[in-house]
Design goal:
- This protein is an alpha/beta fold.
- It has 8 helices and 9 strands.
- The protein is elongated and about 65 Å long.
- The structure holds zinc ion (ZN).
- The site of zinc ion has 8 residues, from helix 2.
Length: 234
């Protein structure tokens, strides 16, 4: 028996003993399926909100912040595949869902041949305590993969979420850009000047988080702001 055959048998035994389940519907995955079963891949509600025509996500931010364009890969619904995906990503330690969605959205955006020149991709930050508890920022992998496909720089240290309770540290004195509530801050504003920045989050509902973060980023000189999310509500 060849090594390849043995490895295939061991793989099959492993799948029988520890079946991989679909993140969308919990059904058992078969060979060739990864993270999502074929049915979920087929039925997942894709938005078509890319950076082409004006879309519903753009409209969420009208009159609130000055953005170039906004986009979201999926529709978030109260029940179903997308809700399950986001739940696994945020609360079940399945960080790889971010990679899956980032590669999916990244290749869609790339295939459209859009006149989109992004310099910097920045995820909406988590407070360090929350990040420590979860083990990761659920937006990081998604944002990282988007940066890869858009051939942009990825930076997750520039924009930070601050603590309300903590007294001002020495470092805080150097923070130059803050939002009104003092929740988010940019530590090295000069790194943003004259850049096209893509701010990334998981789900856009009211748009309040993106708005707060966007306001901080837009304080930098000549910043063009784009937004992207894994999902948005209809
Ligand atoms: Zn499924």
């Amino acid at each position: 028996m060849t090594f390849r055959k043995i490895s295939k048998i061991l793989n099959d035994v492993n799948t029988i003993l520890f079946p991989h389940l679909c993140f969308g519907c919990n059904a058992r995955l078969y060979r060739g399926e990864k993270h999502l079963c074929t049915i979920c891949r087929d039925q997942i509600p894709l938005t078509e909100h890319n950076y082409e025509a004006e879309n519903e996500v753009d409209k969420v931010f009208y009159g609130r912040i000055n953005i170039q364009k906004a986009a979201a890969l999926l529709y978030f619904e109260e029940e179903g595949i997308v809700k399950n995906l986001i739940h696994h990503l945020k609360y079940k330690g399945c960080e790889e869902i971010g990679t899956l969605l980032g590669d999916w959205f990244g290749s869609i955006l790339k295939s459209r041949d859009l006149p989109l020149q992004i310099d910097l991709v920045i995820p909406v930050p988590l407070h360090s305590r929350k990040r420590k508890k979860r083990g990761y920022n659920q937006v990081s992998k998604f944002a990282e993969r988007l940066a890869f496909h858009l051939e942009a720089e990825y930076n997750e240290t520039l924009l930070v979420k601050r603590s309300h309770t903590k007294t001002q540290t020495t470092k805080d004195r150097w923070l130059r850009y803050l939002d009104q509530e003092g929740q988010f801050a940019v530590e090295n504003p000069q790194d943003l000047h004259n850049k096209s920045v893509l701010l990334v989050d998981d789900v856009i509902t009211t748009g309040a988080t993106m708005e707060s973060c966007g306001k901080v980023l837009l304080q930098a000189e000549n910043v063009r702001l784009y937004l992207a999310a894994m999902a948005c509500v209809r």
